[in-house]
Amino acid sequence: MSYLALFSGQGSQRPGMGRELVALSTAAATTYELAGDVLGIDLLRAAENRHGELSRPEIVQPVITTFGLAAIAAVRQWTGLAHAVALGHSLGEVVALSASGAIEAADAIALARCRGEAMGRCEPGAMAVVFGLGHATVDDVCAGDAGEVAVATRNLTGQCTISGAVAAVERVCAEVARLDATTHMLPITVAAHSPLMRDAVLPLRAMVESIPVQTSTVPVISCVDGEVITDERDVRDRVVGALLEPVDWPLAVARAVAHGQRPAVELGAGSVLRDLVRALVDGVEAVSVGADGLPAVQAIVAPTRQPSGDSRQLAAAGLRLVASTPSTVEMTAAQLERGKHCLSALRNLLTAGPQDGTARAASADEAVELTVEVMSFKGYAAEVTRKRLSASVGGRA
What is the 3-state secondary structure (H, E, C) of 179-190? Predict the structure, then answer.
């Protein structure tokens, strides 16, 4: 079984995003290493948001792009399957194109930084969500401030986002409120998909024209008009045009599903796209890598590849525990090397095939002992590790 790949845009970021993904997948870890080489910064550390990095477009856009590319690499490692159709929301379209072979991963990460830098240099603005009013009506209200505010995204029937100059957005919010709509101002100053992004077009165009692109290997559906993005010229024009043009998510999802209904997987840290697809498509199975985890993705996309429950759950819990727990002592070189071996063995348990009762019990024991060993290198007693591991899997350690 293949799946529909959904790639999140700005707004999907979460502090700490990527840590668990890297712990559970060597393919994801490789993607983050590539990003570090391209950008010269550690995106996992940046995603900790200790100094507000996730509010800076020149950082958060590469963070989101790298997470999406790492997530799809991890899903392929866990399931053995590639996606059949791709769809990205705003920035996510760049990630969708890269994951589908149109743009090299390194170029997509650099492009995301360029896009974020260009948008960050534009005039500050505002964005707000409007609930309970038809898109056409909101369009008409925005027309009163033509060139200053516009509908940026159409998410669901009766729900859209407006974007533009602060005063114009506030005026539209006040006017639609008189029409019984509800509004919510978003805590951002970059007015995406609005006329204020005009000054970002030229630098992004220069970047897009400087990198090699090609036709994607699987269909990528435009989030603007629902059409399949075709050749190299179309790829370049779409990436630049999306700065100003509104997202029509219901149309894009409908066109993607028309290629064959299949499970949908959000390759992002949040769950907004998963929930929107569930609301738009009756009966669809949808899951998020960030919100639901790789085991949940595997269960829907490739159920026959799932290893036995206890060993998989214990291995996943062990990797999460190791990734989220700081060292209390300095590890020796030998311990670091042995720790890498243990983590690799835990990852192998996650992707092992079905087992009989005896093998299942042995794998579960192995997952516990591997976790205990690594945690001992970090300064934690075996009893403490066993208790924490047991608590995380409901007493099965």
Answer: CCCEEEECCCCC
Closest CA relative to residue 133, chosen from 157, 113, 116: 157
Say if residue 67's pLDDT is above 80.
yes
Dihedral over Cα of 290, 193, 91, 38: its sign: negative
Q: How far apart are CA 213 and CA 197, in angstroms?
A: 24
77-99 pLDDT, tens digit per residue, is: 888 889 999 999 999 999 999 99
Q: Which residue(s) pair with 3 in the sheet? A: none
CB 208 within 8 A of CB 239: yes
Over the chain, what is the mean pLDDT?
Answer: 90
CA distance 302 to 178: 50
Distance between CA atoms of 327 and 339, rounded to whole angstroms? Answer: 12
pLDDT given at position 362 = 66
CB atoms within 10 A of CB 381: 11
Look at the pTM and tell me if it is higher than 0.85: no
Helix 232-241 with 92-99: angle, nearest 10 deg: 160
- Phi and psi angles of residue 65, each rounded to the nearest 5 degrees, phi first: -60, -45
Give one DSSP letter per residue of 330-371, joined into a string.
Answer: PPPHHHHHHHHHHHHHHHHHHT-----HHHHHHHHHHHHHHH
Domains in the chain, CATH or no CATH each: 3-121+195-301 (3.40.366.10), 126-186 (3.30.70.250), 311-392 (no CATH)
Percent over 70 (pLDDT), the chain:
94
Residue 289, CA distances (Å) to 183, 246, 292 in order:
29, 26, 6
DSSP-assigned letters across all residues of 112-157: HHHHHHHHHTSPP-EEEEEESS-HHHHHHHHGGGTTTEEEEEEEET
Q: Name residues whose C-beta falls within 8 Å of residue 140's C-beta, 6 or more positions apart in sequence.
A: none
CB atoms within 10 A of CB 351: 19
Name the more confident of 24 and 111. Answer: 111
Model pLDDT, residue 384: 85
Could you tell me which of 66, 62, 52, 163 has the C-alpha nearest to residue 114? 62
Q: What are phi and psi of 255, to 5 degrees?
A: -70, -35
DSSP letter assigned to residue 269: S
Q: Give the amino acid at 318.
A: G
**Contacts of 145-150 spanning 24+ positions with Cβ under 8 A:** 145/171, 145/172, 147/195, 148/195, 149/194, 150/193, 150/194, 150/195, 150/246
